[in-house]
Amino acid sequence: MDLNIIIGGPQGGGVETAGMLLVRATASAGLEVFGIREYHSNIKGKHSYFHVRVADKPVNSIKLPADILGGLDPETLATHFSEVRRGGTVVYDEAIKEKVLTKSPSMDPAKLNRLRSALAEKGIKDTIEGLRGHLEGEGVRVYAFPFSEIISEILKGTKIPIERTMNTAITSAILSIMGFEKHIVYEAVDGLFRGKAEVVEINKMVIDAVYEEFKVKFQVENRDKEEYEGDKYRDKVKKRLLLAGNDAVAIGKIVGGLRFQTYYPITPAADESLAIEESAKIFNEEGNVIGSPIVIQSEDEISAVGMAIGGALIGVRSATSTSGPGFSLMVEGLGWAGINEVPLVITYYQRGGPSTGLPTRHSQSDLLFSIFAGHGEFSRIVIASGDHREAIEDAVKCFNYAEMFQVPVIHLLDKGLANSVTTVPIPSIEIPIVRGSIVNGGEDYERFRLTEDGISPRAFLGRAIQWYTGDEHNERGNICEDPFVREEMYRKRMEKSRTILKEVPDEDKARFYGNEKYDGLLLTWGTTKGAVVDALPTLNALGERVSVLQVRLMEPFPADYISKFIASSKRVVSIEANYTGQLAWLVERYFMREVDCRVLKYTGRMVSEDEVVSAYRRIRGGERRVVLTGGE
Amino acid sequence: MKVCKECRWWRPDAVLIYVGECERKQISTKELDGPCEVFAKKVESEFMWCSDCRETFHKSEAKRHREHNTYQEVHVDEDVHEYISAGD
Asked: With an 8 Å Cβ cutoff, is B13 touching chain A?
């Protein structure tokens, strides 16, 4: 099984709940799930959707065309109808059948124009009924079902509005079509609305009615079960985590010993801080709760980074979490942490920029910014996670590296990771907590003492007299502009990059996927890795030997380690979600050779598996720069 | 047609525009339900809701909404505040 389901509607109309219901039900049925939320940055009304991929193998990306489309409103059908495969399924409330497609209230003029052209080109009548005729002609099964009628019957005599359970109704229909037994949907509802007995009860009544009606009216139970086999994997269920990327980072930070987190609310980072605040507890050795990490919402990002620096100097594991606009404000603090060798962790979720840009959309356009941000020169670590599992582990490692090398560490993520939900095997995190060189201080303590390995023993604030300023300083920390001291201190800070490259293990520098003998090497990073790795079997079936190198350590750049992979390749292709090919640029800078081809996407939507395959076909056809535009 | 969407007591839902609430009966209905005993013709007021544009407008702007579905009030179900990510 490998199904792609899109369920959409107006933002605020229950799309999030519908998507999560679908994700929970299919995951609890034993399947692997990857779901991504696409939502507009306004609060209500604009079109949003959940794209859920359900498979009997691990998946880390979405894929088009979709197999099933569920529409809570006419705009969803108008937006996604052309993304449904021949033989796929479309489900909606028949109450909208008279609606005019081009009269969707929140549709952007540009999309409206595209829709008008598509309707004209395909000769589709501008109504839901007209679209239905077209889809059926294309071999798509269309279920226009009286959802609102059914809900209205169930809710008769109550004051509960119809719209409140419309998402459950349509999701139940989809799960029924997929062949899932009703109890699986029940379990998902129980989990999603835990502690809200009345909500659970009403939703279960709706599920009952939809399942019954669907069985009678469309006889889907017998007809479709064989195709979708929804209930076949139940026995294979192993304990797994179902979590969003924000949760993954939160888990990693908690496991890694986070004690102090600061943030100023920003998409798509804020959920991570909220998750830590809601869930994290500190236990003593007897298993009793003795407190929780402190999470502070500061007045702005300048303050957030300043507070996190303070926490790190005091000696607790401290982090701040933000996205592009917030990081821009933190840059001065980053430089301060650089000159003062502060073990600060900044969790950086990239989103579409510049400025406010596309606040709720995906992007990988801040790689170079994270590496070069700040005036002057100082060592830093930038590590980019490619999936949820890596995000958990890297969050632990970021603290270790920050304290081992006494440098600011940027954990680079993206919206695609933050807002995607997936099943992850429960990790056994066996990464030891390494706090680096720590001393108690004493009268002769010098915070910036010159040592053989370039790392000065660190005393926490309060344990010894220490001087911290933004100025150049001597070993004690006193302001000093002597040219020889400057040279020593400058070199001490810069040489850490060499130490980092020596001590960080290869698995944190880059990861290789595929056969060791290859002609084409796909270079990628961040969550784009998911689509590229998922596409690998199909690419190899095309007849060319292709493998993948996911670069993880971005700064200091592990050129030596990567060089052997590049040298073995006849064709190097970078695949990333930005305009210029920022990883490709880094490779070109270090290797003085051109990356042969770039596959780029900057629409704000994630790269999908099918796009990787079609892009590689185009490259084989001679294109050197392929720009992807898939997804709505 | 004496259906809900033509009735002065009907408030379309702000989000799902084909369902709404009857102000008189205090029940949830669909736009093409009806007719019923409380049906009354729509009246215009100083501020109206346009469900085609999802916005409130002043009568001075009525020209812009001439062909649209307009109502005296809109129904906002405050309990349907499912989690919506902030876009700031």
From this structure: yes
When pLDDT is averaged across residues A231-257 and rounded to a whole number, the result is 86
pLDDT at B85: 47
Number of domains into which chain B is organized: 1
Return d(Cα A320, Cα A269) in angstroms, integer.
10
Name the minimum distance, in Å, from the CA of B86 to any CA of chain A: 6
Which residues of chain A lie closer than 8 angstroms to B75, CB-CB? 161
Q: What is the pLDDT of residues A107-148, one digit of tens each?
A: 888 999 999 999 999 999 999 999 999 999 999 999 999 999
Helix orientation angle between A197-218 and A147-154, rounded to the nearest 10 degrees: 130
Chain A residues whose CB is inside 8 A of the B29 CB are 152, 162
pLDDT in tens, B16-43: 888 999 999 989 999 999 889 999 999 9
- Identify the structural domains of chain A with CATH numbers, from first to last: 2-235 (3.40.920.10), 243-425 (3.40.50.970), 508-628 (3.40.50.920)
CB A599 within 8 A of CB A574: yes
Give me the percent of chain A exceeding a pLDDT of 90: 81
What's the pLDDT score for residue B83?
45
Closest-CA residue to A406 (of A475, A455, A472, A373): A455
Q: Which domain holds residue B66?
A: 4-78
A5, A81, A12: which is closest to A50 by C-alpha? A5
Q: Which of A182, A331, A322, A218 is nearest to A265 (CA)?
A: A322
Q: Would B43 be classed as within a structural domain? A: yes
Residue whose structure tokens are 């596409």: A535
Position B21 in a domain: yes
pLDDT (0 to 100) of residue A223 = 45
Whether residues A161 and B77 touch (CB distance < 8 A) is answered with yes
Q: Do B87 and A99 touch (CB under 8 A)?
A: no
Q: Closest approach of chain A CAs to the CA of B41, in angstroms?
A: 22
Which tokens is A457 given? 């023993």
In chain A, the residue whose alpha carbon lies closest to the alpha carbon of B75 is A161
ipTM over 0.85: no
Whether residue B83 is contained in a domain is answered as no
Chain A partners within 8 Å of B25 (Cβ): none
A57-87 residues labelled b (16+ CB within 10 A) or e (exposed): ebbbbbbbbbbbbbbbbbbbbbbbbbbbbee
* A370-381 confidence digits (pLDDT tens): 999 999 999 999
In this structure, is residue B87 part of a structural domain?
Answer: no
**Strands, sheet with A258-263, edge to edge from the N-terminal-most edge strand:** A294-297, A258-263, A317-323, A345-350, A409-414, A381-384, A553-555
